[in-house]
Amino acid sequence: MSVQATVHFLPLEKKKLFARWLDGIGAAAHIKPRDYTALKIHFGEKGNKGFIEPAMARIVAEKVKAAGGWPFLTDANTIYVGERADAVHHATVAGEHGFTLESCGCPVIIADGLRGNSGVDVHVGLKHFSHVSIANAIHYSDSLVFMSHFKGHEISGFGGALKNIGMGCGTRAGKYAMHDKLTPRVDVKQCIGCGQCVKWCGGHALRLENGTIVFDEKKCTGCGECILSCPSSVFEIPWDENTSAAQEKIVEYAFGVIKNKPHFSINFLNHITKFCDCYATKGSPLIGDIGILASPDPVALDQASADMVNKKFGGDFWRHIFPSIDWAVQLACAEELGLGTRKYKIVEMQL
């Protein structure tokens, strides 16, 4: 009989018991005294409201300190033009969203430095990458806690722990590598000349000429921000093997992040939107809040999270919002690489 991973569940109505729950499930058991412990979280793009509450981050930080660790909140810079592409603006947005030393009890450190080029090349020797570029503060931390808002994602179907670990911990160069070959199809006949895509394009691959968009494919980074920002369906990712390959690349980065590194993951299944928290709007939740799941196994955690959302929806929610994306690719790849197992049991502790 194959071994099942334990995934702990805290229902939404017991959210106020989060601190006691963390103690009961041993969320800080992997942390040693004097560990520099990275609390990897997404601070939310400016204008976004779907990010994890700072109060929850504070509780996790307190548990790390109780174990003798030295926690810090962190994320790596982005490759699009929003407010998180460099450490100055990124840290500013984090503060505006409530992630401060005073509110969370630990500092915010942008993991890949001022311009997103502070990283370490880690050897992985895998299908897509021989080396991966991991953000400096992530690589040099002693232990890790991943706090992930579980929601939809236009490349992987959903974004959870694996996405937060892989894409989230890569340097800007690493993010370019993971997005490679995700060049969108462009239907200029749909263009209304609003210029939103030009504003958000991280590769400066778009410009307006005579009120119509012009696309320079050679400059495209594949970040997908044009798709998110366009109000008239000019851009579309070619939903074929490219998204499967992108999921595999994300998982290979996750492998480089957590190999030989003590870690624990927490998924927050609330405000479940179609797109990720990189989008600069609140976004409307598409399904009711569920609760919080946690495990030392990020594969089992994401599988359980996806299954729990599907159960509430009454079908494959992720295929419903992204019909052409096989969201299971990331899970199968992660299991194959030994990052965890897709077999799990849900444990709901009595509080």
3D architecture notes:
This protein has 351 residues and is an alpha/beta fold. The protein has 2 domains: 5-178 and 240-347, 3-Layer(aba) Sandwich (Rossmann fold), CATH 3.40.50; 183-236, Alpha-Beta Plaits (2-Layer Sandwich), CATH 3.30.70.20. 32% of the residues lie in helices and 21% in strands. It has 13 helices and 16 strands. Strand 2, helix 2 (54-66) and strand 3 form a beta-alpha-beta unit. The longest helix is centred in the last third of the chain and has 18 residues, at 241-258. It starts with a strand and ends with a strand.
Summed up:
This protein has helices spanning 18-25, 54-66, 87-96, 101-104, 136-139, 161-166, 172-179, 196-200, 225-229, 241-258, 298-313, 317-321, 328-336; strands at 5-11, 36-40, 70-75, 108-110, 119-123, 131-135, 143-149, 151-153, 157-159, 185-186, 206-209, 212-215, 235-236, 263-269, 291-295, 344-347. The protein is α/β, with parallel strands linked by helices. The protein has two domains: 5-178 and 240-347, Rossmann fold, CATH 3.40.50; 183-236, Alpha-Beta Plaits (2-Layer Sandwich), CATH 3.30.70.
What distinguishing features does this structure have?
eight-stranded mixed sheet; two-stranded antiparallel sheet; 351 residues; alpha/beta; Rossmann fold; globular; Alpha-Beta Plaits
At the first level of CATH, the class of the largest domain is Alpha Beta
The major β-sheet equals: 8 strands, mixed
The strand count comes to: 16
Spatially, the strands of the biggest sheet line up as 4-3-2-7-14-15-1-16
User: What is the string of SSEs from the N terminus onward?
Assistant: EHEHEHHEEEHEEEHHEHEEHEHEEHHHE
Helices and strands: which structural class?
Answer: alpha/beta
Overall pLDDT confidence: 94
Low-confidence stretches: none
Q: What is the alpha-carbon Rg in Å?
A: 19 Å
β-sheet strand percentage: 15-25%
Count of structural domains: 2
Oligomer: single chain
Classify the fold: give the CATH topology of the largest domain. Answer: Rossmann fold
Q: What's the helical proportion of residues?
A: 25-40%
Secondary-structure arrangement, i.e. CATH architecture of the largest domain:
3-Layer(aba) Sandwich
Count of helical stretches: 13
